[in-house]
Amino acid sequence: MDKNVLKKISYGLYIVSSLKNGKFNGQIANSVFQVTAEPVLLIASINKSNLTHEYISSSKIFTISILSQKADFKFIGNFGFKSGRDVDKFSEVNFKILNSGAPVVIEKCSAWLECEVINSFDTPTHTLFLGKLVDSEIIDDSEPLTYDYYQKVIKGKTPPSATTYIK
């Protein structure tokens, strides 16, 4: 079996964020997708070992900041290769706080969505959080960052906790 076939599935790159006890955390995710149109339901797949998982499980809120092609490796690395247990990922980026109290990154992002968790589904390593869209905004008309662009143009790597990691 050639698991590289999975690289043929289209993915975007997003910052999925949440809050707990007044603190924010966010992470890079590429497994985010719309499930239904009415009501608008989205799923974010989050590794159980990540701090963002703990925050979403606690608050029942997650936000999705859609990265644009303006994002570079350093910016992506802040959310993708650092732990919120060790650093404040929001300390050096432009973000805003929504009515729910959750943050969205507006720097180097083309849009954002805010979801209220209505269900979750367990897998061995990840939880699929099903969220109902409660708010959203288009920031600008910049091209969204795809996972393919990240790998081929930015020359980015995939961390072991990512849903698309292949040894």
TrEMBL record:
Its cofactor is FMN. Residues 6-154 form the Flavin reductase like domain. One of its GO terms (molecular function) is FMN binding. This is High molecular weight rubredoxin. Keywords: Flavoprotein. The lineage of its organism: Bacteria, Bacillati, Bacillota, Clostridia, Thermosediminibacterales. Belongs to the flavoredoxin family. SMART domains: Flavin_Reduct. Pfam families: Flavin_Reduct (PF01613). The keyword Flavoprotein applies.
